[in-house]
């Protein structure tokens, strides 16, 4: 339902300019931008053609009223630097092309608000790719091949909605520079294995957070770290139902979570239970697994505990832990903003349900 709303919103952003002149050249086998476009055009559509290059001569100093260009489903590989000069381009749709770098939009840096580059071949976002786009509010990069997003690369923009669904990200990009504006972050179907409080706790305006289809097993208390959050999508995660996730049983009515009916991949005793069948008390009593022979029992609060970081520590101290069957650690695992103390349990203790 959320996706649907988001899509609707994006579609609305591409509605034609009120009182403007719309010209449509869709599905005409064009291999370049046509020449017979009215000088008064406000909304231009050349979708489903075979255009492979946008040249500076295609738009520069020809269409002073042009504010929306739709070019989805072409075969564009190149948009020449310095294109779109003399337009007032606000929205551009380049979905389903063959673009591998963020094009140069510097000629329209003070008008461009919405870029749709979904289903292209972009592999990275570098500092400077977007930072001159001071009006940019919406960036759609669904289904690219993004493996890296440089720290600070959103600085200077006004981004409120960022869609990174279906890429190859292993961590949440740095959105600090847009934390006053970012309201929707869609990072579904990437390669995330965890979300640390430090990666998200500065996102004070984030309302919609979509994490579906990653490899995350434990989530920090997002309701606490993200004060504006109202919608969380966490379906298709290999969730571990343990004390670290107990915060999800304490959410307010206004907070909506979209998750699988049977969300617990582990412990296996609960893998066929519905989320409703598992109470907060059951979660609080269940230690979180670090690896096949160590668990952590949450104390003090139900805060998590970046399991991967604890795991590193356990590995580094494995001899010690093996000797000390029952190692009580208070403070050693204070990770990021997490104030909790933990007890690391060995397999034997876990079996005995300490
Ligand atoms: C533009 O020219 C093409 C042929 O080059 C023609 O098929 C098309 O109808 C023309 N469109 C307009 C809006 O004049
Ligand atoms: C553009 O708009 C002007 C003023 O509204 C009008 O006079 C002119 O005929 C229009 N040109 C075209 C090509 O539609
Ligand atoms: C943005 O992050 C900074 C640094 O963490 C923080 O001081 C500020 O309150 C944050 N702004 C919002 C709106 O969350
Ligand atoms: C639940 O776990 C048991 C034991 O590990 C396994 O046999 C079963 O296939 C699992 N069920 C699901 C739905 O994954
Ligand atoms: C293990 O820790 C518990 C409390 O956390 C304590 O009661 C128990 O005596 C300890 N066992 C050993 C063998 O130190």
From TrEMBL:
Keywords, ordered alphabetically: Leucine-rich repeat, Repeat, Signal
Taxonomy, superkingdom: Eukaryota
Signal peptide interval: 1-19
Transferase among keywords: no
Keyword presence, Signal: yes
InterPro entries hit by this protein: Leu-rich_rpt, Leu-rich_rpt_typical-subtyp, LRR_dom_sf
PROSITE patterns documented for this protein: LRR (PS51450)
SUPFAM superfamilies: L domain-like (SSF52058)
Protein name: LRRCT domain-containing protein
Organism: Capitella teleta (Polychaete worm)
Taxonomic path: Eukaryota, Metazoa, Spiralia, Lophotrochozoa, Annelida
């Amino acid at each position: 339902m959320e996706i649907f709303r988001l899509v609707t919103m994006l579609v609305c952003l591409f509605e034609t300019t009120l009182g403007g002149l719309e010209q449509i050249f869709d599905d005409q086998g064009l291999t370049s931008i046509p020449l017979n476009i009215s000088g008064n055009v406000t909304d231009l559509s050349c979708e489903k053609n075979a255009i492979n290059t946008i040249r500076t001569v295609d738009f520069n100093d020809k269409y002073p009223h042009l504010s929306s260009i739709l070019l989805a489903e072409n075969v564009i590989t190149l948009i020449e630097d310095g294109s779109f000069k003399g337009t007032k381009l606000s929205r551009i749709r380049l979905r389903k092309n063959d673009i591998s770098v963020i094009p140069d939009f510097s000629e329209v840096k003070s008008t461009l608000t919405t870029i749709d580059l979904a289903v292209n071949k972009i592999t990275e976002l570098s500092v400077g790719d977007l930072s001159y786009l001071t009006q940019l509010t919406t960036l759609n990069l669904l289904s690219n091949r993004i493996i890296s997003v440089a720290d600070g690369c959103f600085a200077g923009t006004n981004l409120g909605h960022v869609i990174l669904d279906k890429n190859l990200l292993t961590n949440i990009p740095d959105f600090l520079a847009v934390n006053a504006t970012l309201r929707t972050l869609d990072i579904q179907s990437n390669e995330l294995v965890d979300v640390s409080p430090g990666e998200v706790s500065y996102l004070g305006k984030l309302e919609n957070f979509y994490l579906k289809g990653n490899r995350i097993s434990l989530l920090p208390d997002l309701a606490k770290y993200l004060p504006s959050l109202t919608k969380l999508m966490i379906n298709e995660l290999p969730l571990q139902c343990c004390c670290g996730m107990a915060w999800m049983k304490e959410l307010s009515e206004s907070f909506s979570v979209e998750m699988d009916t049977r969300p617990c991949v582990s412990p296996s005793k609960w893998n066929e239970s519905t989320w409703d069948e598992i109470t907060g008390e059951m979660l609080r009593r269940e230690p979180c697994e670090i690896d096949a022979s160590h668990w952590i029992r949450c104390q003090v609060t139900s805060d998590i505990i970046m399991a991967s970081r604890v795991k590193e520590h356990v590995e580094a101290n494995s001899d010690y832990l093996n000797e000390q069957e029952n190692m009580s650690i208070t403070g050693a695992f204070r990770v990021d903003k997490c104030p909790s103390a933990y007890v690391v349990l060995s397999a034997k203790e876990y079996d005995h349900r300490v």
